[in-house]
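Deliverable D2.4 — example input (structure tokens):
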């Protein structure tokens, strides 16, 4: 698609321009898109101005001094409450009437779906159109009362006397008065009449009707500040705030229209998260946002309250140290300990039925005795250190940082910070913020073992860093805090909160806490013995809080500024992104540069995403929301067959990430950080959800493997960025040491060794169509079938029952009944391949037969040769498999059946099976079920095919399997077993019967026939019904054919088998280490999850007309991981939320989803949570130990 693809299609543009005015005005629909009677608009205008009318009455009575201000406000509120009750009564009446009397008529499909037929000004249709009413009775009462209260307080808020007292000007007061009532009318209409769709939408659905409360809530916040100013003593700050807010009150409609103010649910969660992180030293929560965040917030706030009331400073230090340590641990493992050990990262929410990766047994993955003992030891040591230092040294007389007891610890912290920063920088591929290549990082990624050997030096540095972070930093910071002089002034709210946070953040995020503490120390050292007014009075705890908040906002500002520059520059430099309006937008941004900078600063201060509208250089402040950006639970995805590859690698990737996190290879691990992993055609999106002492919680998402054009463009750029970092030459020049892709959203960090499946696809031209290979396929099939039959007997003897579930994934149970020929058309052969190979189908007859208990013989529905089979309502089922309708007494269309009895054909039901007399006692072990000897085939036909049976191979295989069932046996016993003619005849009969039933009695000549047999789509043959009646034998036969094709593939690639021993070991390897089947089978899915070393599948490319072989090999490979610009991701997700939830722009070819090599726009949209994004895999929150 070109760069000038429409931002919104014509229909969506019309829809948007009808919706946006409604949002601005709070709900009135003055732009309908069709003709409506004038009274529709008049009624809405009257309802919109009703609050102004009632407020005007109160204001007039107050100005005439007929009523006191308070009484006038109450009167306005009562009048508004009555009007709201009337509107709700009318809406309820209209809803009941339309529910009982419904006009029926033929619908006109040409009429717009929103068009309403109005009859008169108060008709049911008119009332329902203007005031749809509430869904819940409680909301009817609540919103009605709230409307009255809002009108009363709003009237009081904008009294002319109050405005004149604030601004001292009648003219300014009148302007503020008029415009303030516009804001109040918008909020009242949204609350009581009709709620507009908000541009700031967090939830896809407003189940409990919370949206109408959003606008009144913000008005109540403004009123609360004004009330505090009225009834408090003269506080200049409050008076100034009231003046500013009265002016800002006029711009609330614009803030609502542009979606800057968050909805109630997002505001509550964002507020609690910000307070928990920056006020109480916690971390964003990875689980359910509502409950876990509320619980952690309550407990953390409770600790601060306790610190305020505890009289002893020693008690405060001990409580803060203990609770800071305990709350920084992974508390989700406590429930696991109570319920018993289980996997830390099973994906229960996505692909059910598959085995989860085995739980790691190394330290920290599960909360056991070792972990509990370590945590108790650390807790006791920390409390002892804090108590002793505070009691004996904290009360020392010297208060100077240079000469006081904190001096040695302060200098130690400075040294530790520099050392830790250096050790972390050398762990990644780039240093100094991703600008320069790291010369110490290993070069070349061709071999995993070589990479690990070259990385050993960095491993030692990482081990030192890990010891410093988890065992040195926390105790050094506790020592610094325990001796601080500010503890003597603890009993103030700010100091209680500050020290509660300081003692916790040292455990929760040791590196960040150390940086904050170093800044405070440097400020004190720079000041020397001088007193810094205002700063020193704050106390150490509050100073650390402010430094942490400032550092976070500055980091966000720099990331947002980089994202802004990327969008601006690439909108012109990238030709495929250069729209016709690009020059105009660049000129506007240049001329309004201060305004753009203000937008970036405001979004950083609010910790809100910077929203590029349609991902163009039009920047808005998105509404503040939690760090995760999405309200739903972690782990929702859009699964498909390829999801299993991500599910398989999640376990190994978890272990690799745990090691990388502990070593610092991925840099700072702040919650909200995003990483992208790349291996072959797989893209892994990793998001940090939560971080604490010794653990980190992440979410792993897998992006689609079927690459679209946009996906391919961005994937190619990702490969280029990683190649520049990891595939660089041994010696770097001066210019080569720079990161040439610094402006890209992706910065390479490290390569991780992960056990994954490498995917190799080969075109089988020259192999499957070679007559020499096809002639050998028949002999290999007989050898593989004999090996499987004897192996079946051995397993049955040892008690290993042949699991139907296991073999069904091998055979696939394709429809033998989906016949392509009839006995009356014996000369017809599907090997002619007139229409190419037919895809294998699972017929309705087979499903019906499997559903019937006790029904083993599958009913066959025949289809004429060459007939076209249409897909039924059932997926992958052929209509020809359905039983044809037959007139009574007629058998038209079915093959003729000889109802007589052929004496040459054995019939088990007549008891004509001869008794087998084995000459060797051990032969009974290799006896086959009786039903397998009842093939309806003439003995003369079997006799003619007897030369195809490899007797030497049978004796060799029998000699190899014999000791497995006989134990310690003599050579004579083995020789007798090989010479047992009855046993040999039994296996000859069964093997040749299977050969005929597959239609393989003559050499294979058609690749399409081979492909159909491999897929289990066996054409109708004389013995097919008999073969299909025995599920186990059919599956053994199909597995033997697949083994034989794999032998053909291997011998064509590697050369022929030189001895029976080599063939035997190869078949053993196939059985033990390989899954040979189809990608669409359940066995393929299960084998990937069970981590079979190798998988093979045969496919057919209909577009190219070629056959392909696909081999998956499980091995340890290097997955390249890079850090994404988190603010760029949040900004694009904010635009995605606005586009889909408000503008409903779900066009698959829209501009904002097109490929962008720098922003990785298409990949970012994919990685969003459903329903807005579409990752094919998403894990539950994975808790990684980092100790």
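Example output (designed residues):
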């Amino acid at each position: 698609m070109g760069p000038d693809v429409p931002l919104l299609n014509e229909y969506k543009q019309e829809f948007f321009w009808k919706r946006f005015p409604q949002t601005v005005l709070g709900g009135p629909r003055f732009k309908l898109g069709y003709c409506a009677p004038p009274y529709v608009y008049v009624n809405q205008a009257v309802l919109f101005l009703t609050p102004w009318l009632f407020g005007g009455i109160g204001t007039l009575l107050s100005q005439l001094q007929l009523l006191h201000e308070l009484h006038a406000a109450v009167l306005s509120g009562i009048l508004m409450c009555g009007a709201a009750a009337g509107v709700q009564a009318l809406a309820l009446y209209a809803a009941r009437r339309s529910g009982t009397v419904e006009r029926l008529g033929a619908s006109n499909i040409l009429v717009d779906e929103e068009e309403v037929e109005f009859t008169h000004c108060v008709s049911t249709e008119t009332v329902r159109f203007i005031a749809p009413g509430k869904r819940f009775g409680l909301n009817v009462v609540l919103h009605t009362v709230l409307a009255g209260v809002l009108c009363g307080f709003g009237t009081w808020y904008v009294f002319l006397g109050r405005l004149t007292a604030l601004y001292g000007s009648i003219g300014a007061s009148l302007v503020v008065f008029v415009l303030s009532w516009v804001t109040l009318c918008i909020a009242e209409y949204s609350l009581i009449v009709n709620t507009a769709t908000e541009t700031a939408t967090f939830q896809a659905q407003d189940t409990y009707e919370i949206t109408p409360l959003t606008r009144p809530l913000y008005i109540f916040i403004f009123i609360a500040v004004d009330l505090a100013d009225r009834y408090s003593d003269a506080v200049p700050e409050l008076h100034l705030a009231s003046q500013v807010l009265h002016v800002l009150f006029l711009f609330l409609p614009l803030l609502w229209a542009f979606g800057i103010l968050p909805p109630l649910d997002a505001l509550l969660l964002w507020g609690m998260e910000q307070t928990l992180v920056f006020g109480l030293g916690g971390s964003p929560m990875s689980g359910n946002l509502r409950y876990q965040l509320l619980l952690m917030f309550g407990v953390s706030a409770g600790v601060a309250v306790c610190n305020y009331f505890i009289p002893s400073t020693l008690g405060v230090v001990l409580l803060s140290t203990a609770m800071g340590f305990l709350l920084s641990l992974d508390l989700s493992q406590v429930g696991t300990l109570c319920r018993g050990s289980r996997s830390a990262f099973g994906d229960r929410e996505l692909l059910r039925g598959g085995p989860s990766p085995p739980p790691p047994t190394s330290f920290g993955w599960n909360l056991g005795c070792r972990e509990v003992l370590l945590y108790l030891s650390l807790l006791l040591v920390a409390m002892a250190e804090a108590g002793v230092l505070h009691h004996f040294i904290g009360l020392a007389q010297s208060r100077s940082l240079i000469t006081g007891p904190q001096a040695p610890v302060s200098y130690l912290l400075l040294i530790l910070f520099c050392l830790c920063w250096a050790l972390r920088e050398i762990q990644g591929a780039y240093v100094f913020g991703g600008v320069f290549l790291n010369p110490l990082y290993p070069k070349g990624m061709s071999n995993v073992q070589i990479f690990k050997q070259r990385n050993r030096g960095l491993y030692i540095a990482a081990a030192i860093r890990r010891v410093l972070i988890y065992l040195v930093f926390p105790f050094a910071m506790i020592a610094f805090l325990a001796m601080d002089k500010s503890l003597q002034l603890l009993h103030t709210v700010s100091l209680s909160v500050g020290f509660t946070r300081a003692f916790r953040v040292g455990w929760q995020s040791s590196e960040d806490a150390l940086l904050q503490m170093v800044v405070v120390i440097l400020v004190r050292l720079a000041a020397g013995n001088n007193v810094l007014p205002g700063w020193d009075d704050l106390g150490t705890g509050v100073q650390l809080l402010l430094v942490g908040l400032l550092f976070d906002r500055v980091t966000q500002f720099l990331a947002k500024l980089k994202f802004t520059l990327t969008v601006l520059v690439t909108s012109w430099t990238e030709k495929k992104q250069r729209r016709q309006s690009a020059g105009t937008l660049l000129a506007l941004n240049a001329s309004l540069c201060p305004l753009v900078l203000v937008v970036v600063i405001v979004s950083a201060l609010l910790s809100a995403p910077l929203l590029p509208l349609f991902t163009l250089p039009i920047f808005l402040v998105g509404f503040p929301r939690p760090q995760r950006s999405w309200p739903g639970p972690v782990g929702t995805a859009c699964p498909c067959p390829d999801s299993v590859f991500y599910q398989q690698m999640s376990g190994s990737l978890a272990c690799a990430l745990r090691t990388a996190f502990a070593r610092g290879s991925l840099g700072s691990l702040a919650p909200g950080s995003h990483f992208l992993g790349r291996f072959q055609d797989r893209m892994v999106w990793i998001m940090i959800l939560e971080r604490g002492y010794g653990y980190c919680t992440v979410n792993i998402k897998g992006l689609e493997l079927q690459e679209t054009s946009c996906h391919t463009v961005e994937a190619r750029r990702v490969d280029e960025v990683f190649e520049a970092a990891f595939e660089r030459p041994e010696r770097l020049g001066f210019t080569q040491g720079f990161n040439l892709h610094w402006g890209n959203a992706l910065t390479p960090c490290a390569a991780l060794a992960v056990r994954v499946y490498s995917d190799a696809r080969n075109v089988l031209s020259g192999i499957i169509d070679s007559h020499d290979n096809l002639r050998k396929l028949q002999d290999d099939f007989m050898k593989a079938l004999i090996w499987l039959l004897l192996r079946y007997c051995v397993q049955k003897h040892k008690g290993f029952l042949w699991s139907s579930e296991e073999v069904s994934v091998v055979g696939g149970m394709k429809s033998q009944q989906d016949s392509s020929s009839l006995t009356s058309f014996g000369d017809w052969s599907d090997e002619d391949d007139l229409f190419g190979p037919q895809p294998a189908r699972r017929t309705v007859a087979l499903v019906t037969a499997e559903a019937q208990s006790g029904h083993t013989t599958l009913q066959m529905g025949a289809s004429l040769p060459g007939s076209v089979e249409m897909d039924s309502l059932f997926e992958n089922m052929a209509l020809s498999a359905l039983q044809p309708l037959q007139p009574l007494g007629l058998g038209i269309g079915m093959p003729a059946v000889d109802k007589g009895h052929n004496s040459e054909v054995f019939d088990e039901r007549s008891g004509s099976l001869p008794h087998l007399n084995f000459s060797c006692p051990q032969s009974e072990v290799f006896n086959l079920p009786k039903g397998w000897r009842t093939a309806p085939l003439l003995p003369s036909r079997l006799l003619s095919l007897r030369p195809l049976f490899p007797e030497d191979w049978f004796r060799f295989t029998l000699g190899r399997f014999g000791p497995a069932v006989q134990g310690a046996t003599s050579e004579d016993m083995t020789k007798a077993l090989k010479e047992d003619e009855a046993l040999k005849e039994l296996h000859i009969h069964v093997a040749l019967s299977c050969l005929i039933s597959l239609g393989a009695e003559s050499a294979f000549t058609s690749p399409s026939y081979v492909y159909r047999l491999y897929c289990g789509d066996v054409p109708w043959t004389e013995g097919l019904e008999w073969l299909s009646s025995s599920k186990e034998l059919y599956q053994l036969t199909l597995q033997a054919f697949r083994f034989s094709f794999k032998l053909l593939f291997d011998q064509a690639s590697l050369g022929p088998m030189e001895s029976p021993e080599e063939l035997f070991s190869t078949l053993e390897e196939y059985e033990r280490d390989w899954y040979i089947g189809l990608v669409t089978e359940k066995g393929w899915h299960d084998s990937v999850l069970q981590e079979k070393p190798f998988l093979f599948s045969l496919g057919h490319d209909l577009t190219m007309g070629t056959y392909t072989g696909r081999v998956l090999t499980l091995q340890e490979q290097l997955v390249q991981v890079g850090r994404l610009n988190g603010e760029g991701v949040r900004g694009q997700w904010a635009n995605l939320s606005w586009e889909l939830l408000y503008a409903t722009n779900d066009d698959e070819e829209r501009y904002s989803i097109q490929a962008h090599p720098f922003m990785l726009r298409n990949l970012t949209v994919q990685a969003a949570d459903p329903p807005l994004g579409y990752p094919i895999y998403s894990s539950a929150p994975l808790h990684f130990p980092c100790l």
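The longest strand covers residues 1106-1124.
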